[in-house]
């Protein structure tokens, strides 16, 4: 049965409907090279419902699968005797009726397979292959057993006996003994001297740890001083503690606690230990006094019943987070769950700390940077416990929350909410809206610079606005703090007056005042690394990546270290050459600025100032986002130098200065959203200044000070920006008025991918006619990435409400070797 035909079965045979009188279940299996629907028998001891996650046999493995539908018909090529039986239920009732509807809607809208959507909704490991293992059955082995084995059986038997555990994976035995394994293991299994079993992936199994429980508290003379210390420490922990932690608290060896158990004072047993993200201790706080605007917004939100979509449009520092917190409190007290989505992992520590200070241990963090074990246990924690708050990034929109009462998207304008790396290419804001509709709960979209799509939906001046969409405004900062004044510095004039520094004279003066006034600064640059490209001053040759059609960027590591060039697309790196590869000139120069160059210039020009870098190079290790921000907050540096991460919700009261090194690097992109993205980024980073008692200032260095977008940023004027931008979008039928579908193709063979693109564009033109405008086919802006040649076709529909065909049929024009993907509502057209 084709996968797409299962939708009707799922809708009709949910857990709300009685199971029909038959014994087979269709199970969706996703393993490497094995995907699709398989039929299984249901054992009498299991009560299976559609949506359960099951463990089922497949060949010699146990694999994970999802119960899709009951069936009374067997496939024509199978008999009853050939049908295998479901092994066990891993998770029961995960896919509720509403959740199934959500998954199918995502698959339908984004023109992708249901299986891809299910993968996005589940943590890794749930559906992966297990490992076959061979273990000695010591009780069944007679004396001199090896004498009765075949030659191959003796080899395997002796190898297992020599091991302390007598237990090896089948794959390990195959690698060691190759062709002798199959017959040897078969001989040992027939005799019953070994057993074959299947082990689930380690990260997809609950973690078991020893826990110590206090049984008796009275002192006895036979106890040693160390043993008395253990009992005292255990009492201070409420009578129960993990064994590993108790040894640290009591400063003793594990054997001391084992002796106490033998004497009957404590009990030691295994319990499951959830692998949740470790969080530092936070001092609790209470509700803060609201401004009149905050109070009005909160009252409005608390009066909403059922599904409503609300734009909370608040200037930077207006207290949107406090409104979230006070809106959440009564919903949480009703035993309902809340989902809070943030655009970047770097934003989660600060927001999480704020939420934990208010709601304690009801906070769960979920994002892709967790280990596989942490993601698996966090997912199960969400599924099993109502009345909690989940804070996560884009993928958390599929969190298995029970009794969902509210969804919040903070910084809803951010492009990180769009999945752009792999199918399904969903936007978390769109999926959150569908989920809120299905769960019948409110959706709050918060931003100081709303996306134009959200603005059009909620604009109060629109007479045709949906009655379930609302606009709430927070036009002023808390405690009546002023928005920071923004100074524009024309870098053309700086150059004319002889200033060759990357810092304008205005910014230099402001930086010199930081330490005397005990204040701190943020310097924003859009690129990481040292320089954006390296060029020969003699012939103009630019060093490029051999695998991609982009220039290599220079990355500084340390003084006297080898100079390194790196590609930001495929991560290729090479040593910086001494001479030009084209003309052999020694005059190679670094052009452009990145975070490394900014910090190097700070060290050279302001040696007294301490700095920290905050970009994707310095935050790769787990927990590094939190550590860097905490170091800056504690005063270990005067300046935080970073990229886009700095624009996302950073709230540090001592920051009084924000400097933007090169605003034009954002503005001049060949993309219809570049103006919107520039306004949002510059407004957001400017909003990091002056959030405490001291007033702030912002200095933007630009070569285009009179550009309309830069002018709107200088006055913090969102309405001025949209008045300029929306008419241009409307005239060209671009979102939020029109709708785009982007078809991407790539291949190692340039002629093959070009031919496929031409055939697809011709088919689209024939099928759609005047319904849509076909742009392309054309090479991508960067045609070659990681040796793959990329082409694309943009289909532009004139109306957001217009339906379009399922473009997956176009893959028929792509031969083997040409990859094909469909991106509905793309944010970037490269």
Concise structural overview:
The chain is of the alpha/beta class and 830 residues long. It contains 24 helices and 33 strands.
Describe the protein's architecture and organization.
By secondary structure, this protein is α/β, with parallel strands linked by helices. It has seven domains: 3-121, GIY-YIG endonuclease (3-Layer(aba) Sandwich), CATH 3.40.1440.60; 131-199, Arc Repressor Mutant, subunit A, CATH 1.10.10; 208-272, Orthogonal Bundle (Arc Repressor Mutant, subunit A), CATH 1.10.10; 292-473, Rossmann fold, CATH 3.40.50; 486-530 and 594-728, Rossmann fold; 533-591, no CATH class; 739-824, Alpha-Beta Plaits, CATH 3.30.70.600. The chain contains 24 helices and 33 strands. It has a seven-stranded parallel beta sheet, sandwiched between helices. A six-stranded parallel beta sheet has the order 19-29-28-20-27-26, with helices on both faces. Strand 22 (553-555) and strand 23 form a beta hairpin. Helix 10 runs parallel beside helix 11 (320-333) and helix 21 (674-686) runs parallel beside helix 22. It is globular, with a radius of gyration of 31 Å. The two termini are 38 Å apart.
Keywords:
alpha/beta, single chain, 830 residues, GIY-YIG endonuclease, Arc Repressor Mutant, subunit A, 24 helices, 7 domains, 30% helix
Mean pLDDT: 84
Oligomer: single chain
Task: Work out the number of β strands.
Answer: 33
Helix content: 25-40%
Total individual domains? 7
Query: Radius of gyration, rounded?
Result: 31 Å
Helix segment tally:
24
What is the fold-level CATH name, i.e. the topology of the largest domain? Rossmann fold
Our measurement of the CA-to-CA distance between the termini, rounded to an integer number of angstroms, reads: 38 Å
What is the highest CATH level, the class of the largest domain?
A: Alpha Beta
> Mind describing the biggest β-sheet?
7 strands, parallel
Strand content: 15-25%
Main-sheet strand order equals 14-15-13-16-17-12-18
CATH architecture title of the largest domain: 3-Layer(aba) Sandwich
Q: What do we call the CATH homologous superfamily of the largest domain?
A: P-loop containing nucleotide triphosphate hydrolases
Helix/strand structural class: alpha/beta
Shape, principal axes of CA atoms: globular
Runs with pLDDT <50, length 5+? 1-20
């Amino acid at each position: 049965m084709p996968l797409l035909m299962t939708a009707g079965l799922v809708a009709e045979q949910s857990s709300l409907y009685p199971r029909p009188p038959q014994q087979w279940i269709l199970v969706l299996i996703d393993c490497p090279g094995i995907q699709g629907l398989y039929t299984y028998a249901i054992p009498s001891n299991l009560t299976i419902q559609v949506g359960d996650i099951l463990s089922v046999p497949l060949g010699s493995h146990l694999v994970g699968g999802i119960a899709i539908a009951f069936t009374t018909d067997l496939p024509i090529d199978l008999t009853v005797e050939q049908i295998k039986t479901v092994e066990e239920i891993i998770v029961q009732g995960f896919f509720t009726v509403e959740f199934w509807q959500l998954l199918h809607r995502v698959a339908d809208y984004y023109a992708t397979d249901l299986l891809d959507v299910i993968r996005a909704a589940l943590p890794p490991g749930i559906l992966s292959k297990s490992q076959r293992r061979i273990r000695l059955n010591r009780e069944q082995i007679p004396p001199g057993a090896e004498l009765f084995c075949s030659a191959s059986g003796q080899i395997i038997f002796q190898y297992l006996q020599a091991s302390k555990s007598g237990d090896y994976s089948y794959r390990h035995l195959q690698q060691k003994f190759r062709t002798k394994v199959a017959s040897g293991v078969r001989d040992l299994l027939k005799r019953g001297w070994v057993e074959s079993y299947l082990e689930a992936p380690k990260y997809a199994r609950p973690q078991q740890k020893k826990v110590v429980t206090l049984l008796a508290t009275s002192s006895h003379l036979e106890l040693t001083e160390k043993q008395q210390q253990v009992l005292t420490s255990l009492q201070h922990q409420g009578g129960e503690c993990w064994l590993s932690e108790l040894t640290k608290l009591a400063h003793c060896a594990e054997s001391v606690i084992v002796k106490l158990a033998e004497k009957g004072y404590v009990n030691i047993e295994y319990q499951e230990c959830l692998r949740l993200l470790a969080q530092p201790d936070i001092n609790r706080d209470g509700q803060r006094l609201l401004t009149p605007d905050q109070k009005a917004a909160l009252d409005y939100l608390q009066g909403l019943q059922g599904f409503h979509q609300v734009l909370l449009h608040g200037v930077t520092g207006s207290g949107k987070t406090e409104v979230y917190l006070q809106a959440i409190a009564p919903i949480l007290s009703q035993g309902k769950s809340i989902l809070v989505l943030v655009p970047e992992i770097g934003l989660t520590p600060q927001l999480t700390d704020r939420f934990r200070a208010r709601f304690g241990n009801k906070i769960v963090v979920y994002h892709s940077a967790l280990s596989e074990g942490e993601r698996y246990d966090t997912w199960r924690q969400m599924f099993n416990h109502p009345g909690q708050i989940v804070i996560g990034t884009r993928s958390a929109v599929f969190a298995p929350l029970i009794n969902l009462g509210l969804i919040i998207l903070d910084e809803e304008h951010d492009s990180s909410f769009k999945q752009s790396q792999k199918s399904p290419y969903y936007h978390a804001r769109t999926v959150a809206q569908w989920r809120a509709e299905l769960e019948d709960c409110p959706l709050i979209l918060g931003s100081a610079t709303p996306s134009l799509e959200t603005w059009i939906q909620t604009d109060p001046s629109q007479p045709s606005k949906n009655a379930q969409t609302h606009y709430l405004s927070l036009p002023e900062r808390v405690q009546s703090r002023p928005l920071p004044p923004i100074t524009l510095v024309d870098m053309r004039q700086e150059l004319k007056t002889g200033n060759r520094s990357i810092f304008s004279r205005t910014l230099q003066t402001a930086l010199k005042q930081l330490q005397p006034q005990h204040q701190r600064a943020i310097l924003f640059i859009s690129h990481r690394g040292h320089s954006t490209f390296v060029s020969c001053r003699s012939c103009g040759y630019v060093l490029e990546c051999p695998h991609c059609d982009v220039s290599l960027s220079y990355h500084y590591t340390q003084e006297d270290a080898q100079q390194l060039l790196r590609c930001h697309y495929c991560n290729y790196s090479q040593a910086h050459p001494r001479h030009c590869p084209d003309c052999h000139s020694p005059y190679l120069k670094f052009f452009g600025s990145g975070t490394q160059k900014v910090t190097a210039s700070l060290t050279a020009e302001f040696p007294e100032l301490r700095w920290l870098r905050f970009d994707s190079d310095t935050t790769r290790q787990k927990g590094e986002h939190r550590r860097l921000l905490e170091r800056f907050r504690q005063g270990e540096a005067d300046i935080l130098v970073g990229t886009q991460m700095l624009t996302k919700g950073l709230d540090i009261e001592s920051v009084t200065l924000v400097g933007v090194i090169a605003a034009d690097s954002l503005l001049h992109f060949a993309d219809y959203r570049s103006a919107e993205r520039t306004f949002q980024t510059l407004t957001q980073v400017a909003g990091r200044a002056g959030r405490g008692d001291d007033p702030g200032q912002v200095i933007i260095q630009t070569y285009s000070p009179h550009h309309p977008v830069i002018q709107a940023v200088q006055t913090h004027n969102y309405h001025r920006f949209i008045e300029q931008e929306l008419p241009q979008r409307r005239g060209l039928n671009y979102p939020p008025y029109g709708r785009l579908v982007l078809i991407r193709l790539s291949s190692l063979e340039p002629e093959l991918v070009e031919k496929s693109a031409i055939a697809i564009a011709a088919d689209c033109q024939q099928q759609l006619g005047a319904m849509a405008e076909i742009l392309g086919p054309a090479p991508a802006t960067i045609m070659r990435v990681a040796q793959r040649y990329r082409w694309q076709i943009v289909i532009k529909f004139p109306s957001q409400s217009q339906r379009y065909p399922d473009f997956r049929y176009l893959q028929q024009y792509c031969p083997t070797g040409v990859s094909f993907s469909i991106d509905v509502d793309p944010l970037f057209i490269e």
